[in-house]
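Hello forum,

I keep getting stuck at the same step: I have a sequence, I want structure tokens, and every attempt I make locally crashes halfway through. Rather than fight my setup again tonight, could one of you with a working pipeline run this one for me? It's a single chain of 316 residues.
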Amino acid sequence: MTPRVSIVVILHRIPRQGDNTLYSLSTAHQRHVDARDYEIIVVENASDAELGEARARAHGDNVRYFRRDEPGVSPVPSVNFGFDQARAPLVGFMIDGAHMVTPRLVEHVLLAARLHPLPVIATPAHHLGKTEQHLNVSHGYDEVAEQRLLDEARWKEDGYALFDIGVWSGANYNGCFSPAMESGAIFCTRDAFESIGRADVRFDSEGGGIVNQDIFARLCRLPGSRLIVLAGEGSFHQFHGGVSTSEVPDREGLLERLRLQHVAIRGHRVIGYDREPLVVGVIPRQALRSLHQSAELGRLRHAMCVGSGRPEWPND
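Reply #2:
Ran it on my machine without issues. Output:
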């Protein structure tokens, strides 16, 4: 039986985080769906700290595992490899496999896909912790502290508890009713991903640079596509010392080098895409705080657009 959606998860040196991510995607956590509805394609780039096939496949019969000896430092080749393995007409990408997701993500992705022939389905992005993770390290936040936070939240009993221990990521700093830069878990049709030329292998820097933002922007710019935001769901980034989420010396200089790579490839800096989101899903009580922030920020943005005489959604 062909699955309805394939979810590609890229792992590298994140065994603890990958285990949490795959549990959050499993039928033990996802509600109102069956393992036959979706497949999880795990692509793990070889390292000295691997999750491994046995632990990955322990999360369900719908998990397919591939280990790759990737010679470069970018996950982009593995993203395209994972796409080649996907069997469903709808494909999701978690390029940073450290993102845990909430319990009705798959259900609402499948619902959203029925609403438009060319959907771009975005999962709002959050970080675990009191602030964005690159600001947390000097205050004692690390993997041990984070796992303790997760255990205390008892997130496996109710995955929406992740909202209680998370904050908006910088990519979604204005919430889910305003333009975003990227999504922690983005879904599109196979044809749409092919139309944008897949993930661009020229993003060959560590972590893929800002390839996730590039994919999101190019999908949103496809003629006839429709941006759909799952406002009551979320992806929650776990700490792992990633390129853009670590508190490192000259972090801004590092990010600027990644931005300049985008300029070299695309001819301009990466920009958000001002499209009105079609909001789909239900709003669990734990998400109300985040949604309240989103509504307030959306109201302020609306007032600024009206005051300046510029359109609120110029790209629609």
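The mean pLDDT is 92. If your local run keeps crashing, start a new thread with the error log.
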